[in-house]
Amino acid sequence: MTQGNIQIVRYGDLIPCKTAFIDAHTPGSNQKENFTIIGGGVSESPDQHVHINIPHGFNIGAAGQPPKCRNSLHSHRTAEVFFVLKGRWRFFWGRWGTAGEVVLEEGDIINIPTGIFRGFENIGTDYGMIMAILGGDDAGGGVIWAPQVIQDAADHGLILSEKGKLYDTKKGEKLPDGVAPMPVLTDQDLTTFPEPTSHDVVPNHVARYLNMVALADRNPALVIGEHGILKDKPGFEVDFLTRQSAQINPASAAMPTVLMPMRGHWHLTCGDLQKTLNPGDTASIHAETPYTIAPCMTGEASLYRITATTDPAGPTWKGK
């Protein structure tokens, strides 16, 4: 839905891709649904649908998974942030996924440190959904897979080219002449990937939903930013709004902004445009566009807001 300087992608209109990544055939990971909402994302499949293909300085995506389905170990060169929209999720990291872990409940958010292998799985009882923010318009140039993921994928018919494109040998596809497979990281390469413990990661990279609700009782709570709960400068900022800290007076940002409701129904007004946003919806607001956003029904209401900054979309910044 596009009207003027506002574009809205409804949760119910999201188009999934089940062949987005190299582990699409690997047992335990082959039921994933990936969604690219804003920006090109990091999908390795031409089947991936992009809902809003306009540069924002960051990418917005999502992953939907049934219980016991996991996303294989990988790394990124820019920030990867998730908040749990539905379900209960376990995030784990390290070369073999055993260095540390944390369980996130609905509304919790994690800013996973760059440069470590990470994965996640739905440990709830129903289909779960996590929403993702990736730093940079090109999201750091793609995904870096742990060696065993590439090897397991080949055993199940999928080969990733050095250019980041998937080929399915079960469909008779093969690498084109002159194109090599994606190199597998060597033992020397792997020494550059840290193995932080849960005690290293959780205090500085995870924020809990109820804590953010309490902090946003008067003003929006800055969650990710130089002075945020999770101190970082990944090329965007994330703040958290509740009924008590809604934006009832028109205001704008110098950079593109994205609104992502977590709880309740929110009334978005931009000039003559009036729309209701629901949990799972994504609204893109162009730079310098005044708007208001406030709950339109009684009950619990919370919303994540992502705003681009001029900071480079590089590795996770260690704030002081």
TrEMBL record:
Listed InterPro entries: Cupin_2, RmlC-like_jellyroll, RmlC_Cupin_sf
Pfam families from the UniProt entry: Cupin_2 (PF07883)
Domain Cupin type-2: 67-130
Protein name according to UniProt: Cupin domain-containing protein
Organismal lineage: Bacteria, Pseudomonadati, Pseudomonadota, Alphaproteobacteria, Rhodobacterales
Coiled coil: none
Origin species: Parasulfitobacter algicola
